[in-house]
Amino acid sequence: MDKRNVFSSVFFILIAAFVLVTSTGLGIGQLNNPRPGLFPFTASICLIVFCVALLVDNFRHKNSLITLAGLWQDSNWRKNIIVIAALIIYTIFLAVIGYIPATFALMIVLFIIEGMKTWLAIANSALAVTVSYALFQYILKIPLPRSIWGL
Amino acid sequence: MEALNSLLYGFSVAFEFHNLILVFAGCLLGTLIGVLPGIGPVGAISILLPLTFQLPPAGAIIMLAGIYNGAMYGGSTTSILINVPGEAASVVTCLDGYQMARQGQAGAALGIAVFGSFIAATIGLIGLQLMAVPLSSLALKFGPPEYCAIILLGFTFIVYLAQRSAVKAAIMTLVGLILGTIGLDPITSQPRMTFGIINLYEGLHVAPLAIGLFGLAEVLNNLEKSAPEKLLKVKIKNLFPRKLHWLKARWAILRGTIIGFFMGILPGGGPVLSSFISYGVEKRVSKNPEMFGNGAIEGVAAPESANNAAASTSFIPLLTLGIPPNVVLAVLFGAFLIHGITPGPLLIKEHPEIFWGIIGSLYIGNIMLLVINLPLIPLWVQVLRIPDRILYPLIILFCIIGAFSINNNIFDIAVMFIFGIAGYLLRKFEYEPAPLILAFVLGPMFEVNLRRSLLMSQGSFTIFTARPIALSVLIICFIIIIFFIYQSRKKTLDKYYKQL
Q1: Are B180 and B439 spatial neighbours (Cβ–Cβ below 8 Å)?
Q2: Touching B: A residues 21-60, CB under 8 Å
Q3: At B184, phi and psi to the nearest 5?
Q4: If DSSP codes are grouped into helix, strand and coil, which group holds residue A24?
Q5: Coil, strand or helix: which one is A66?
Q6: Do A36 and B54 touch (CB under 8 A)?
Q7: Is A33 helix (H, G, I), strand (E, B) or coil?
Q8: Closest by Cα among B7, B9, B271, B27 to B132
Q9: Alpha-carbon torsion B247, B252, B254, B255, what sign?
Q10: pLDDT tens across B87-117, in order?
Q11: Please, are residues B124 and B257 in contact by the beta-carbon 8 Å criterion?
Q12: Considering only CB atoms, which chain A residues are within 8 Å of B185?
């Protein structure tokens, strides 16, 4: 049994069920007068059907067991956890402190995670932020996020 | 004669100085992206989209098309030299390209890949040029039922041609369709799946989704790999293939071109699939199939020709019908809309400078790519030496800027991060993200045309059978589904009998 299929099917069935309920609230209408809920309603039913098919097929075939933990075996998954956490914190703080300090801090974290020495990471981050800010803000005239103080 | 006049007009647009610079920049950036493992053309076009915001629409699309073609050319370099494909369409090139490099024939492999790509892409472009006008005229006669049937055919092909599980591809397609419903209802303007979040009223944009699923997810996948790939130390000489190489590879190039030509037009096909199919065909028709995987030059020539022919012809459904046939073109479709241009049958009439300008610039880009690729291969080899510790943080930085600049909204960065994590997990669970993006782009078109068809027919599905084009397309869908079920049953029974 492939646990990846079991887990993902159940996850998508839950999503489909949620969409099904929400689309019913939007109004399904009739074929001669389809309402906004008709399309997501139909898509979610089809999604449930295919997920069930995947589940049934998975239980029918007696392949070797593939566990979820096995997916991250022999991989440097801790790196990804730190990167994802850093990205979440970055998104939260970006709107408050603006592009330059938030991105500078993020880049330091990313460079250090990748094994760069701290002083080199700081220098490279400063360079990356300066060049990207100059390129997008001044040359390409694409405004980058500012802090709540307008900086 | 008219086609020739139109092409000359296209060249006059493409030869304008600023457009030439843009074609060159696009080809150069595309090759760079194709060379660098870890980011493919989908992520690259999405990330580099902001660079085109200040450009006129024709120039912007010309540059993005150059990036696409450049990535197709550049992808083979990493496949041959380090056994790591720069992008998905060059995966199969690794099999024989790397073996050739190990046997001291890296130059011949790189050379035949570039020349094969050039020949195939040029033939593909001639096809695009000849088919575009009649198809556009035909498409003008299409109504909602015809569009609905064609998009349905697209979904059928996406699932049928899935590289892994068809059921999983169907699930991804349906998730894409559901994501496409987020925002205001296209007919009644009623908010759907927005949950009171104002940022969702306009729906999700394809660029943050694509950047997340193909850019960030790819970086996350590479980050967790413990050992970086080692660059093969080879002397690259004799980039111009010798007569013997040409004799061996000529039919492979031709067959690859034909396969790529048709696979490029098919929805769900495109460069990736055509390269796999052409490799399989080549191995089957070869008198020495045992050579494949051990450095057969045909194993390099065929897939590289196929993916470049497909890259050229995949513009046909986008420019004439307004239907992107693959995920890269789906992102390009989004780029068209950002620049206020709707691709489709009216494009040729309303924006001939864009339509013919793209075709003209693709021809020029092809020649530029030949020039860029051959003498600059030593430079691309040096690019491969950029350490991951510098490359990946910079890709993440560009992902952030690319997502933000679409609407100057931090919300899009959050969307990109969410889909980056989702893309990483989807790969772990062996789901392909490409059907999701394609369905996300085609979904709203499909819904609008389906609902309009139903309104036109007072709720009767006979509207699809009463119109010959729609009916023919639906019959094709039906045949594919029946064929698919037959194939699956046969496979299961074969397995069962083997076990007995």
Answers
A1: yes
A2: 22-23, 26, 30-40, 43-44, 46-47, 50-51, 53-54, 57
A3: -80, 140
A4: helix
A5: strand
A6: no
A7: strand
A8: B7
A9: positive
A10: 777 778 888 888 888 888 888 888 898 899 9
A11: yes
A12: 26, 36
For residue B318, CA distances in Å to B30, B139, B267, B325, B495 come to: 20, 12, 10, 7, 40
Shortest CA distance to B61 belongs to which of B454, B359, B398? B359
The C-alpha angle with vertex B280 and arms to B362 and B293, in degrees rounded to 5, equals 100
Q: What's the pTM value of the predicted model, to 2 decimals?
A: 0.85
Question: What is the SS3 assignment for B192?
Answer: strand
Q: Give the nearest chain A residue to B404 (CA atoms).
A: A144
Return the bridge partners of A33, or none.
A30
- Chain A residues whose CB is inside 8 A of the B408 CB are 142-143
Give dist(CA A114, CA B218) in Å, integer: 15
- Kindly determine whether residue A103 and residue B400, on different chains, have CB atoms separated by under 8 Å: yes
**Nearest to residue B65, comparing CAs of B283, B345, B364?**
B364
The one-letter amino acid at A35: R
Q: Which two tokens stand for residue A5?
A: 């299929």
ipTM of the complex: 0.93
A73 at B interface, C-beta within 8 A? no
B positions 18-57 inside 8 Å of A (CB): 50-51, 53-54
From residue B229, alpha-carbon distances to A65, B82, B384 in Å are 30, 7, 10
Phi, psi of B433, rounded to the nearest 5 degrees: -80, -15
Neighbouring CB atoms inside 10 A of A13's CB total 18
The closest of B61, B59, B273 to B157, measured between CA atoms, is B273
| pLDDT-derived band at B492, boundaries 50, 70, 90 | confident
Closest CA to B65 of B33, B38, B41, B47: B41
pLDDT digits (tens, 9 = 90+) for A52-98: 999 998 887 766 677 777 777 777 888 889 999 999 999 999 989 99
